[in-house]
């Protein structure tokens, strides 16, 4: 009843065949980068806090080869991408002082242009490339970061080995999203797509740009992702307004960010008659940072019930204090929590649609799917996932 997640090898095989059909040549370079699900720590990366995502077996694959000239041709096979599905990009001149490419339609190509413009090191040569993805678009599983990081990894393979740190690659991809998609995202999505590791969640300190692998190997526990199939686009004002509200709260508290705030500071905001909105946003950030640290310790101890309780508390906070949930996500969480063997469930991603993430006993996952499917007002899709590897160059 869950979606069949194609093997990466099969996605690559199909992409190479499509590339040959389109370009009448063999793809030489093959790379992939994963989407992610955030287990806990939502809307916290831009508050300098702690987040705990894991990389998914849902990936974006790019295949292609270097060509002569200064014009690259790129094709996407994503049915949800805006037309045209084939576009050309004038590559930056190696000798030019400014090496940025202006954004422009189609929208999907701006993620590629943004990464090319922010690539660290040698200017990449022109290329032909085909993009294929199993990461659902607009589902809160970071299809955009998967595309950005896959693009960066492809450019890496084009220019050859470099001493650029993985964190700097993630930062370049984040800047691409800021400047070319107009989404002021935090660092989490790009970070986990670059640095994810099989059988591990990743606790990321978004202030210090450091991370800790947290083993997640119990064969009896799985992560169930449920796509509400309510689409969202974070270029809307809601994401930006939440980020601004958090910055305003930190300013009132005379803190660098809400990472430095404590629960006592929420009482202070009340005492100075800060707006209810400001108080609620700050309370979510402060409590979510604490929950994420506690969840990391619980996962280390395989205390899945504690982890699940923290997930539910996280969802309630996102619903009531951060106000980024919606009726469909609330319904999915409620239905999941009615099933025996479910430890916890919460919305994941930016909100206003997208997915929920549920921690569940492997033996109960089919019961959970059946119960949610029966009770949900929409048409959900399900993915059963284990933590997977970050971006890789398969061939170059």
How many helices? The count is 11
The sequence of SSEs as H and E is HEEEEHEHHHEEEHHHHHEEHEE
Query: Overall pLDDT, averaged?
Result: 95
Share in β-strands: 15-25%
What ranges have pLDDT less than 50 throughout 5 or more consecutive residues? none
What value does the Rg take, in angstroms?
21 Å
Straight-line N-to-C gap: 37 Å
Relative helix content: 25-40%
**Helix-and-strand structural type:** alpha+beta
Shape: globular
According to DSSP, the number of beta strands is 12
Largest sheet: 8 strands, mixed
Describe the structure.
The model has no long low-confidence stretch (mean pLDDT 95). The protein is globular, with a radius of gyration of 21 Å. 40% of the residues lie in helices and 22% in strands. Helix 2 packs across helix 3, helix 3 crosses helix 4 and helix 6 crosses helix 8 (276-300). The chain is of the alpha+beta class and 396 residues long. The strands form 2 sheets. Strands 1, 2, 3, 4, 5, 6, 7 and 12 form an 8-stranded mixed β-sheet that branches. The protein has 11 helices and 12 strands. It has helices at residues 8-23, 107-118, 143-159, 166-180, 188-195, 237-252, 263-271, 276-300, 304-320, 327-337, 365-375, and strands spanning 29-40, 50-66, 71-76, 86-90, 127-133, 200-205, 210-215, 221-227, 342-348, 355-361, 381-385, 392-395. Strand 9 (342-348) and strand 10 (355-361) form a beta hairpin.
Short key terms for the protein model shown above:
396 residues
Topology overview:
Layout: H1 8-23, E1 29-40, E2 50-66, E3 71-76, E4 86-90, H2 107-118, E5 127-133, H3 143-159, H4 166-180, H5 188-195, E6 200-205, E7 210-215, E8 221-227, H6 237-252, H7 263-271, H8 276-300, H9 304-320, H10 327-337, E9 342-348, E10 355-361, H11 365-375, E11 381-385, E12 392-395
Parallel strand pairs: 3-5
Antiparallel strand pairs: 1-2, 1-12, 2-5, 2-6, 3-4, 6-7, 8-10, 8-11, 9-10
Helix pairs in contact: 2-3, 2-4, 3-4, 3-5, 4-5, 6-8, 7-8, 8-9, 10-11
